[in-house]
Amino acid sequence: MAKERGNKVSRSASDMSSPEVTGAKRLKRSHEDSPQYRRSDFTVGIICALPVETAATSAILDEIYPDLTEQDISDHNSYRLGRIHVHNVVIASLPAGQYGTTPAATCSKDMLRTFKSIRFGLLVGIGGAVSSADYDIRLGDVVVSQPDGQHGGVIQFDRGRNNQVGDFERTGNLNNPPKVLLAALSRMQADMELNESFIPQYLAQMVEKWPKLRKDYSYQGQEKDILLTHHMFI
Q: I want to staple 113 with a disulfide (CB 3.0 to 4.6 A). Which of 2, 35, 72, 192 is the partner?
């Protein structure tokens, strides 16, 4: 049991081995073992809108680095730094209670103030979708956008208008993702033809490292997927 000593808290050996403390111990060990890094070493930026998205993204990092000791004076973001495979990544969250394209644009602009070597940014988070005859989308699927036809991979919901017959007419398109990402996506699609998905393995490793995430961040089962219930089909 934790005992308060002034402003400090001590824990018994049994407390320190509990699942709640395991993640914190790994986080501390990861900090101590991390090599020295510079801000110019980070080339991938990730932006999440919600704390639960930031938590899930942080949990799949292969290594977590110490927090920044300084950043650009005009940069108001708070960062999680780490490594995925050979890539040093920066994770930023939108300010609490602020959502939408404007806060996301401000967040990405501030990120580039501090990390000038960022090659590309990823918006990572929870998405809503509806299954169709062409796209069988299930709870827990990972969706990656790509250019198709007249759009660049992502359709901005408010970039358009309703015409006289009541149809939604797009009035502009967002730019395509960087070619380096499209090349990586093509390679990933080819690998998926040859091998089973590694996502279940990554999720199993995640909840092993962070046991508290097992309840809400692991697969909930088909019975929790309301899109598949009979009364939802139209």
A: 72
